[in-house]
């Protein structure tokens, strides 16, 4: 596994929980595309890709969404006739998810230690925007992979370690942190004080999944935006950029893509 790149912490788990409690409202706003900026564009591209993969799950199947946030994929799962179980370390995120009152859905505050009851139970396991923040990503991926039943699938997002956008975003984040610190401003999602791992999927992720009985994964790269930032965009520009990223994600070299979505099926 690639070594994590982020701000050191004596208790990363506690720090992540507090951080996601704090940014929950902003996270939901971006996931609902209630604002138009580069960050919400990245969210939308990832959501569209994951939802398309998720809907391959047969109706009636169980979806386990670990690190669900405000149940971003819950409505699509419910509309498709799926059973949905969401788990998150953030009590605020879980509260938001419950407010949706989705049918055939349940939500729990929990961490990786809460996964034992779901071993080989899920038709689809989601870990979206999750592995980037785990202190031990290899262990977390193994635990979640074991929740998939034979014939099921695992869908995950990841930061692309070998990419120009990741390098430029890292530099921009550092500059942003320094500037805001000099002004005494509060931390933001863009300058998250949590672990931010990045991965080479064939080197870091596929071997773990193969060892857990999965076929070689399918990877779709996306997010060719050079900077992830709360830069406001006119809606027309936002829509144009989203469509351009759909094309670039399929055709551009992976070096130009900041992130990706991986899907693997269990034998």
The percent range for strand residues is 15-25%
Output the CATH homologous superfamily.
Vaccinia Virus protein VP39
Radius of gyration: 18 Å
Distance between the termini: 24 Å
Helices and strands, in order, run as EHHHEHEHEEHEHEHEHE
Q: Give the beta-strand count.
A: 9
**Judging from the principal axes of the Cα atoms, what is the shape?**
globular
Task: Characterise this structure.
There is one protein chain. The protein has 267 residues and is an alpha/beta fold. The chain has a single domain, classed as Rossmann fold (3-Layer(aba) Sandwich). The chain is built from 9 helices and 9 strands. The protein has helices at 12-22, 24-31, 38-54, 74-79, 91-99, 137-145, 164-183, 201-211, 235-251, and strands at residues 5-6, 62-66, 83-88, 105-109, 122-127, 148-159, 195-196, 218-222, 259-265. The strands form 2 sheets. It has a 7-stranded mixed sheet. It has a two-stranded antiparallel sheet with strand order 1-7. α5 links the parallel β3 and β4 (105-109). 42% of the residues are buried.
């Amino acid at each position: 596994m690639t070594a994590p790149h982020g701000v050191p912490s004596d208790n990363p788990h506690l720090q992540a929980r507090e951080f996601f409690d704090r940014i929950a409202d902003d996270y939901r706003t971006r996931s609902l595309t209630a604002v138009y900026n580069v960050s919400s564009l990245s969210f939308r591209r990832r959501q569209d890709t994951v939802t398309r993969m998720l809907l391959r799950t047969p109706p009636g199947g169980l979806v386990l969404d670990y690190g669900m946030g405000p149940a971003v994929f819950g409505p699509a799962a419910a509309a498709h006739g799926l059973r949905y179980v969401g788990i998150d370390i953030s009590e605020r995120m879980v509260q938001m998810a419950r407010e949706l009152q989705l049918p055939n859905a349940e939500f729990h505050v929990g961490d990786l230690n809460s996964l034992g009851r779901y071993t080989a139970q899920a038709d689809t396991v989601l870990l979206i925007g999750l592995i980037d923040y785990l202190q031990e990503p290899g262990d977390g991926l193994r635990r979640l992979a074991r929740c998939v039943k034979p014939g099921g699938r695992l869908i995950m997002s990841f930061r692309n370690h070998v990419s120009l956008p990741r390098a430029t975003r890292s530099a921009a984040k550092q500059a942003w942190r320094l500037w805001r610190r000099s002004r005494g401003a509060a931390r933001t999602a863009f300058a998250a004080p949590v672990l931010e791992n990045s991965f080479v999927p064939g080197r870091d992720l596929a071997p773990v999944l193969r060892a857990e009985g999965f076929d070689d994964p399918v990877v779709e790269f996306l997010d060719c935006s050079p900077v992830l930032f709360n830069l406001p965009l006119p809606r027309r520009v936002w829509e144009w950029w989203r469509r351009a990223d759909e094309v670039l994600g399929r055709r551009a070299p992976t070096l130009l893509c900041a992130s990706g979505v991986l899907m693997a099926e269990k034998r």
